């Protein structure tokens, strides 16, 4: 799903193990840093950020870094990386800069600081400058990827979602080719230079540009793959790395079909846990489903497929809601346990004949539709094109049709994330020759990263975190027992305290430490307007 939608709506599962066979090393698999020539050319001139239409938080500074598009040609074409920072408030005890990445791939960071100041990093802002940058191809950096398509009609999660019974292979392949061609035609050479390894090289150049001898970094979801890649390429250049909601780096890059399948299974597990909680606490669940919420959920989807639910209360797009809409909205809500009450509200309203809330969430949070213009946020384009530039997908189309059919059997609510939706990767032509595909082992002489994993994370399942720790060899696993995607900031005081201590002093929690989530399954807030709730959900942690 993308970014924080597929990887922020990233729904995937496991079971089918169509393995990608051994492949030759990529041109960028050397692990070497950018040339000294490239690094010495990086300068940052900080000025107050331009005032956005919605206003910019006080004290936020902005700059742009001009970096090589291709590090093999450091004096050639450039990318222009948007950077923002909130200076440390305790200058006398400043440690340095804290870089962060919210995930995706394709998620932005600069606009977060511009809108919120230090935001969730307020406690850390005492000792650190909080530094955001939009990765190459993303957000305010230029060139910025945008396929300029209607995501609902042509994107990788376009509707109607195919099933083995409805799939017209030739028509579906034609649609996928149309999307791929639109992306290639409208974005140019940048598509061949957006690998995570190149973003890691950019981040190291920015580390040097802000004057930090070693990097401090906090990455969420796909941002953990960026962190793991940075550690592999620059093992002596960081002092602290936090990887929250971690991806199994080896599997993500080398066996993405299995990785997405495992993710889809994670969303099925998350739905089961929500529905079980719903049965146990009907008040918090707004009485959806009575004694059998699972049966009620399936019945609601079946009914919506026969007779779509009125959503005329959502004036930007009053189309009725069908079964695909309910499934996709549900996936969005499952990213954060804080959204369980809102999901209960949306389902209860839909069961009563009002799909307004569902329509708002699908349009704005899932597809990124801009209500005033009918255009779409390109985060899904960036999610797809960045991943496709480096992930080692097979080219045999039949594998994706077989995977789609298997997913339909195995994952009754979220099969659409695994198999058919991945066909576009097999047809993608723009590969980054400087991508990095491992190994992700970290020397014992390097600082130990802190890997934070949630036991029932739908988007990055816990089992992947355990594999990443084994792959790295030198990292410490911190577990949050709970639900939702990622743990830091607002889920567990224990997680926040231990994470902050590690970033400030390097203190690692004892091996085997488990923190408990402190988020109840509660009814929705009093402001129940669909637009307001959709905005809350959209920002509730869709980071992969």
What does this structure look like?
By secondary structure, the chain is α/β, with parallel strands linked by helices. The protein is 37% helix and 11% strand. The protein has a ten-stranded mixed sheet with strand order 1-2-3-5-4-6-7-8-9-10, with helices on both faces. Helix 5 packs across helix 6, helix 10 runs antiparallel to helix 11 and helix 12 runs parallel beside helix 18. The chain is globular. The termini are close together.
List keywords for this structure.
544 residues, alpha/beta, ten-stranded mixed sheet, 18 helices, 10 strands, disordered N terminus
Topology:
Blueprint: H1 36-40, E1 47-48, E2 61-68, E3 78-86, E4 96-101, H2 110-116, E5 128-133, H3 151-154, H4 169-187, H5 196-209, E6 215-220, H6 222-233, E7 238-244, H7 249-254, H8 256-280, H9 293-306, H10 323-333, H11 340-351, H12 356-366, H13 379-390, H14 397-410, H15 423-426, E8 450-456, H16 462-472, E9 476-483, H17 493-505, E10 514-516, H18 530-538
Parallel strand pairs: 4-5, 4-6, 6-7, 7-8, 8-9, 9-10
Antiparallel strand pairs: 1-2, 2-3, 3-5
Helix pairs in contact: 5-6, 9-10, 10-11, 10-12, 12-18
């Amino acid at each position: 799903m993308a970014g924080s939608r597929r990887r922020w709506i990233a729904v995937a599962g496991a079971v089918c193990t169509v393995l990608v066979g051994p492949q030759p090393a990529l041109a960028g698999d050397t692990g070497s840093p950018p040339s000294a020539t490239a690094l010495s050319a990086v300068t940052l001139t900080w000025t107050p950020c331009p005032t956005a239409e919605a206003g910019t938080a006080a004290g936020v500074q902005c700059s742009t870094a001009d970096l090589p598009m291709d590090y093999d040609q450091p004096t050639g074409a450039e990318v222009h990386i948007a950077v923002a920072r909130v200076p440390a408030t305790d200058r006398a005890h400043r440690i340095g800069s804290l870089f962060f990445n919210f995930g995706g791939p394709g998620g932005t960071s600069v606009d977060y600081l511009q809108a919120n100041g230090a935001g969730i990093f307020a406690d850390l802002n005492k000792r650190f400058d909080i530094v955001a940058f939009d990765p190459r191809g993303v957000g305010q950096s230029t060139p910025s990827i945008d396929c300029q398509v209607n995501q609902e009609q042509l994107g990788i999660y376009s509707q109607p979602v195919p099933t083995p019974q409805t799939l017209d292979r030739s028509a579906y392949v034609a649609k996928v080719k149309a999307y791929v061609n639109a992306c290639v035609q409208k974005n140019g050479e940048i598509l061949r230079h957006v690998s995570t390894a190149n973003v890691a090289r950019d981040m190291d150049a920015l580390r040097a540009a802000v004057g930090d001898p070693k990097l401090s970094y906090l990455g969420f979801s796909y941002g953990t793959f960026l962190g793991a890649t940075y550690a592999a390429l620059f093992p002596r250049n960081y002092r602290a790395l936090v990887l929250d909601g971690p991806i199994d780096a080896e599997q993500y890059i080398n066996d993405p079909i299995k990785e997405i399948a495992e993710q889809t299974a994670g969303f099925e597990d998350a739905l089961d846990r929500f529905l079980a909680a719903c049965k146990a606490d009907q008040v918090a669940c707004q009485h959806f489903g009575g004694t059998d919420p699972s049966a009620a959920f399936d019945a609601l989807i079946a009914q919506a497929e026969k007779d779509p639910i009125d959503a005329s209360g959502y004036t930007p797009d009053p189309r009725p809601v069908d079964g695909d809409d309910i499934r996709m909205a549900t996936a969005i809500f499952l990213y954060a346990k804080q959204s369980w009450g809102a999901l209960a509200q949306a389902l209860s309203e839909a069961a009563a004949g009002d799909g307004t809330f569902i329509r708002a969430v699908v349009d704005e949070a899932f597809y990124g539709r801009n209500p005033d213009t009918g255009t779409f946020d390109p985060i899904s384009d960036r999610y797809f094109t960045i991943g496709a530039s480096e992930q080692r997908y097979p080219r045999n189309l039949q594998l994706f049709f077989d995977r789609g059919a298997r997913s339909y059997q195995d994952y009754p609510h979220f099969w659409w994330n695994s198999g058919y939706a991945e066909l576009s990767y097999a047809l993608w032509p723009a590969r980054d020759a400087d991508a990095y595909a491992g190994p992700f082992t970290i020397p014992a002489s390097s600082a130990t990263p802190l890997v934070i994993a949630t036991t029932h994370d739908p988007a990055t399942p816990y089992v992947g975190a355990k594999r990443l720790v084994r792959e790295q060899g030198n990292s410490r696993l911190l577990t949050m027992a709970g639900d939702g995607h990622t743990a830091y900031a607002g889920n567990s005081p224990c997680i926040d305290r231990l994470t902050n201590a590690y970033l400030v002093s390097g203190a690692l929690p004892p091996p085997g430490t488990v923190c408990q989530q402190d988020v109840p399954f509660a009814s929705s807030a009093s402001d129940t307007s669909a637009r307001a709730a959709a905005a809350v959900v959209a920002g509730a942690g869709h980071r992969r």
